[in-house]
Design goal:
The protein is α/β, with parallel strands linked by helices. It folds into 2 domains: 123 residues, Up-down Bundle (Glutathione S-transferase Yfyf (Class Pi), Chain A, domain 2), CATH 1.20.1050.140; 119 residues, Rossmann fold (3-Layer(aba) Sandwich), CATH 3.40.50.11810. The strands form 2 sheets. Strands 2-1-3-4 form a 4-stranded parallel beta sheet, sandwiched between helices. The longest helix is centred in the last third of the chain and has 17 residues. It starts with 8 loop residues before the first strand and ends with a helix.
Length: 285
């Protein structure tokens, strides 16, 4: 699919992680979108989607949290998310509204506007699927020589009610492959990182994370590249192996590949495993 067929302006829902603990993900994401001609218009006064715990404790509250964001979003352009957990919460609420008249009545009564069925929730992968990212690299392969393990985590797996939606596993390998990087075959790419259990049971999460990172090391990967800010955080803070791998956000490596990574020190100083020696060796910084 050609770039000009893509929406040039989207309503951007960054979510809590990308605005706080993963600010490097947010900054690189914005730069990358600008580079490929996508204008992000941040949703004003957005609120947490409830991905941390609300959906497990109070389903009505979790629905209302997403519904408020849907009510605030203007019509006529898609709502873009990059966090897999946020995407799941948004798409579940959107699906519930599409299928359930009582949910639409609750929405109207609570927010004073009817649910707009034309509003589309779009994950970042949907935005770039079919887009020739290598064209923005002017035919070069800036990631040549980089061997990585793609890590999707578990949140992009579709629950039963969303089973007809496209699964984008493999997209990172496809895009980064056109830019010269080589993905390893490994067993950890869809394993859960422990998500928010990292706070309540860090001991359990460390065991899981160590297994994921060790699998990446054994596969010959030089780094992990993640699709999720929460996963990136857990893979760094909960790993206590003697040898660890740099863990990069997908947006970071894309931005660097397009030659748009200025002032990257403010990104990489937030990484607990410094990726700069590897990236410098590959000529990316």
């Amino acid at each position: 699919m050609k770039c000009e067929t893509r929406p040039m302006e989207v309503t951007w829902f960054p979510g809590c992680s990308m605005k706080t603990s993963a600010i490097e993900n947010h900054e690189s994401f914005k730069i990358f979108c600008e580079a490929i001609g996508i204008r992000l218009v941040e949703l004003p006064d957005w609120n947490c989607c409830g991905s941390s715990s609300a959906h497990s404790i109070d389903r009505d509250l979790a629905f209302d949290l997403v519904a408020r964001n849907l009510a605030l979003a203007p019509s006529g352009r898609p709502i873009l998310t990059a966090c897999p957990s946020c995407t799941l919460r948004f798409k579940e609420a959107h699906h519930h509204l599409m299928e359930n008249p009582d949910a639409r009545s609750r929405f109207h009564g609570k927010w004073g506007v009817p649910f707009d069925e034309s509003k589309q929730v779009m994950h970042f992968f949907e935005l770039i699927d079919g887009l020739d990212i290598s064209a923005f690299a002017q035919g070069k392969k800036p990631l040549s020589g980089l061997t990585y393990a793609p890590y999707y985590g578990c949140m992009l797996a579709r629950p039963p009610q969303l089973r007809r939606q496209k699964n984008f596993h493999g997209l990172m390998e496809k895009i980064l492959g056109t830019l010269g990087a080589r993905a390893v075959t490994w067993q950890g790419q869809n394993r859960c990182c422990g998500t928010f259990l990292s706070v309540a049971r860090p001991d359990a999460v460390t065991e899981v994370v160590n297994g994921i990172v060790q699998s990446g090391i054994q596969s010959g990967a030089e780094c992990l590249i993640t699709a999720c800010a929460m996963c990136q955080l857990n893979l760094e803070i909960r790993c206590n192996l003697g040898r660890r791998l740099p863990v990069l956000h997908f947006s970071e490596i894309l931005t660097l590949a397009l030659g748009r990574g200025k002032d990257t020190d403010r990104w990489f100083k937030k990484h607990l495993v410094d990726p700069r020696p590897l990236l410098d060796a590959k000529g990316l910084i």
